[in-house]
Amino acid sequence: MFSIKKRYFVYSIIIYIALFLVGAFILLLFQRYSQHGLREEAAQYASEYVASGYQPVDIRNMNLTTLLLKSGELTFLAGPSHHLNINSTIENIVLRNQNKDSFYVVIFDMKTGQFLSLAGQSISDDKDKPSMIILGHYLTYLNSVYMAYFFIYTPAYLLVCLSLFLIARYNDRVRLIHQQYLANVSHELKSPISSISAIADTLSEIDSLDEKTRSKYYGIILRESKRLDHTVKDIIELSKLQDPYQEINKVTAFGDDIFNPILSRYQEWCENLDIHFVLNPSIHQLPALYTDISMIHKLLTILMDNSMKFMQPGDTLSIDSTPHSDYVDIHICDTGCGIAAEHLPHIFERFYKVDDSSNLSGSGLGLSMAQEIVHRLGESIKVKSEPGKGTCFTFTIHKNATKKRHYCDKNSI
């Protein structure tokens, strides 16, 4: 599930970036096309007004403002002054181009919210005392383009920036998770290795150890070796479960076909440990289910092993089910020591252990694998627990609506 969310998140970012680039490309083409036409228009205006003289009325009607640069001074010749903000930016543009034969620029007037074109044409051959006619033309038909740019292109740009920020935050979180995971893995592997190494050194350096002590040390080495092997296997298994390309082989099967092979084994183990094993008859009356049987077996093994780990002789382990319209709930409950409320939100985290000081075996990866199995199957899992009363895990398995048991009542399916 996590990988699917991540995939859609990446796809959305790619789409936003693509839209951003397409919008930028279209805007660039439009600007190039517009500037080409405006250059021709400005050149025509300049040639007409230089040849025929200034006509303030016509210029005003055309929303033009005419300036004259003579000997480095900028002066109005015609046109309403309030249409043009003569600020330092415009003045610098004009003064910077005063020695050229002609120039053309388009700027945006922040005060009026309009585009302004400045077209300059030299009217003097004297380079020491240049004279130039400058036409300032407000490009009113570009306002709609700017509004489109402001309300579409700019939000898209901000959206991309926000997405990149979220990606950076996500990468930081993933990096932190990886660091914590590696730290936990190294701790879980280092602990048994250190024990084995220390005892091996003792056995090799001290020849006077009696047989009973040596046997005790050999037992510790064997126990720690099994613990190390169990941890490595759990890490490998969890990595396989987290592989999004791992094949899920869902088939249609009835409850007995799914549960009997594994429950019969645990029933025998519970008898040997003096634990009461209760299998509710509803398990044998389950309708056709659609799931991966091998993964359900792994899930049952993890949950039942976890329950038996915290149980004492005389406690009860029960398996029950609750049917719903398109799925069934499977309940695995025990009357063991229970889990405190502050630990419940964390029990599915990798390497999390309720009591690190206990001598109970386990890598701390079992419930993480259980949750990963449930998610890979598209199901859900939850837990209820109370210290001193026990713990109950509940997970779902969806039905196959096309098949029903011949002896089942329709109302119970």
UniProtKB/TrEMBL annotation:
Molecular-function GO term, any one: phosphorelay sensor kinase activity
Keyword Protein biosynthesis in annotation: no
First-tier enzyme category under EC: transferase
Alphabetized UniProt keyword annotations: Kinase, Membrane, Phosphoprotein, Transferase, Transmembrane, Transmembrane helix, Two-component regulatory system
PANTHER family reported in the protein's UniProt record: HISTIDINE KINASE 1 (PTHR43711:SF1), TWO-COMPONENT HISTIDINE KINASE (PTHR43711)
Residues spanning the membrane: 9-30, 146-168
Pfam families registered for this protein in UniProt: HATPase_c, HisKA
Entry-linked Gene3D superfamilies: 1.10.287.130, Histidine kinase-like ATPase, C-terminal domain
Catalysed transformations (reactions): ATP + protein L-histidine = ADP + protein N-phospho-L-histidine
SUPFAM superfamilies the UniProt entry points to: ATPase domain of HSP90 chaperone/DNA topoisomerase II/histidine kinase, Homodimeric domain of signal transducing histidine kinase
CDD domains in alphabetical order: HATPase, HisKA
Residues covered by the Histidine kinase domain: 184-401
InterPro entries: HATPase_C_sf (IPR036890), HATPase_dom (IPR003594), His_kinase_dom (IPR005467), HisK_dim/P_dom (IPR003661), HisK_dim/P_sf (IPR036097), Sensor_HK_Regulatory (IPR050736), Sig_transdc_His_kin-like_C (IPR004358)
Protein name per Swiss-Prot or TrEMBL: histidine kinase
Keyword field contains Metal-binding: no
EC number: 2.7.13.3
